[in-house]
UniProtKB/TrEMBL annotation:
GO biological process, one term: iron ion transport
GO molecular function, one term: ATP binding
Primary localization: membrane
Cellular localisation: Cell membrane
Lineage: Bacteria, Bacillati, Cyanobacteriota, Cyanophyceae, Nostocales
PROSITE patterns linked to this entry: ABC_TRANSPORTER_2
Organism: Dendronalium phyllosphericum CENA369
One GO cellular component term: plasma membrane
ABC transporter domain mapped to chain residues: 6-247
Protein's name according to its UniProt entry: ABC transporter ATP-binding protein
Length: 348
């Protein structure tokens, strides 16, 4: 059975806003982070993800309850001991003066070095490994203040890795990264849980990646309820849809995607076989509000009402053509942009 690394008991998180007043963000949270698991903390803006991450990291004393790291109360651990067990990556830009990326990552070894901060060859090897793991070898000699937000974020993750902690907490680690890097970093974190048996909790707005990669999701709602389960459990229980559905946006339990409510423009018969062009044609038509009825051949279309529009996808290895039939008149377009623009102008 997996061992519990970080546990909370009746934790209440929030802020003392004045001498007499508190703002409670969530209460009675009793959860565990297990060794070898990647947990994604999800929730709408303002739900309390950052507050929870900071409270779990020993940075923001809770309003009630406790956080235990292995057997110890995290708020009673001496800073060097805490740094050996837990590393934290925040989104806030840190002012590190003139440090090179390499030096910043090597600071992650600080809890293990002697009084002078000298790195052993083993420390150096870990620093190199951490930098390589996040794909930042080419950045190592650059000054941190000259890095882009995404490049700096990778270095901050490498610094946290170099700390060789038992548990890593990351607040929106992929916020500044482009899509391929977001996938890479999430996969790396997942792989780390497998290879090092670390427990990793990261907060993110990347629902799609979380659904695909997390072992477990902690879903924090705006009224302070924490739903916990495999991503698929939370989709099936309706917790995902309840938390994220809002005016104009809807979570589709079948596809796991979010949809914008667009005004319905009518139905289109799409004549096409399967294939990538067909998939993206459907996406384009749905985006602008058409319901798509897919048919495989033209005979179906000949029986439909003349007022109904049909779109036929004709493709060969060199080009794609979209042939539109409306009221027995035929038009042709060479791009989805032209097709959508044309359909938008038709009154149906
Ligand atoms: N220093 C503070 N003092 C009082 N209230 C605060 C403070 N910081 C945040 N809050 C409030 O606590 C609640 C939770 O904020 P938090 O930043 O944890 O949410 P979040 O889920 O991380 O949001 P986001 O997704 O927008 O980053 C919000 O209502 C916020 O306004």
């Amino acid at each position: 059975m997996s061992s519990q690394i970080l546990t909370t008991h009746n934790l209440t998180i929030g802020y003392k806003t004045s001498r007499k007043n508190v703002r409670c963000v969530a209460s009675d949270i009793s959860v565990s982070l297990l060794a070898g698991e990647l947990v994604c903390l999800l929730g709408p803006n303002g739900a309390g993800k950052s507050t929870l991450v900071r409270s779990l990291a020993g940075m923001q004393p809770p309003l009630g309850g406790e956080v235990r790291l292995l057997e110890d109360d995290i708020y009673k651990l001496a800073p060097p001991e805490l740094a050996k067990r837990l590393s934290l990556v925040l989104t806030e830009k840190v002012d590190v003066g003139m440090l090179s990326a390499y030096t910043l990552v090597s600071l992650g070894r600080h809890p293990y070095t002697n009084w002078w901060g000298n790195l052993t060859s083993e420390d150096e090897a870990i620093v190199h490994w951490a930098i390589k793991s996040v794909g930042a070898v080419h950045l190592a000699q650059r000054q941190v203040k000259e890095l882009s937000d995404g490049e700096r974020q990778k270095i901050m993750i490498a610094r946290a890795l170099a700390q060789s902690p038992t548990v890593m907490l990351l607040d929106e680690p992929t916020a500044f990264l482009d899509l391929p890097r977001r996938v890479e970093i999430m996969q790396l974190l997942r792989q780390l849980t497998r290879e090092t048996n670390q427990a990793i909790l990261l907060s993110t707005h990347d629902l799609d990646l979380a659904l695909r990669l997390a072992d477990k999701v902690w879903l924090l709602t705006t009224n302070g309820i924490l739903h916990i389960g495999a991503p698929e459990d939370l989709v099936l229980s309706g917790a995902f849809a309840d938390t994220f559905n809002s005016e104009g946006v809807e979570f589709d339990v079948n596809s796991g995607d979010f949809y914008l409510h667009t005004s319905h423009k009518g139905e289109i018969n799409l004549i096409a076989d399967e294939g990538i062009v067909v998939e993206w044609t459907i996406r384009a038509l749905q985006r602008v509000g058409f319901r798509v009825k897919q048919c495989e051949n033209f005979s179906v279309v000949q029986n439909v009402k003349p007022t109904q529009i049909s779109v036929e996808v004709i493709s060969n290895s060199e080009q794609v053509l979209w042939r539109i039939t409306n009221n027995k008149t035929v038009y042709a377009h060479h791009s989805l942009y032209e097709l959508v623009k044309f359909l938008n102008c038709l009154s149906i």
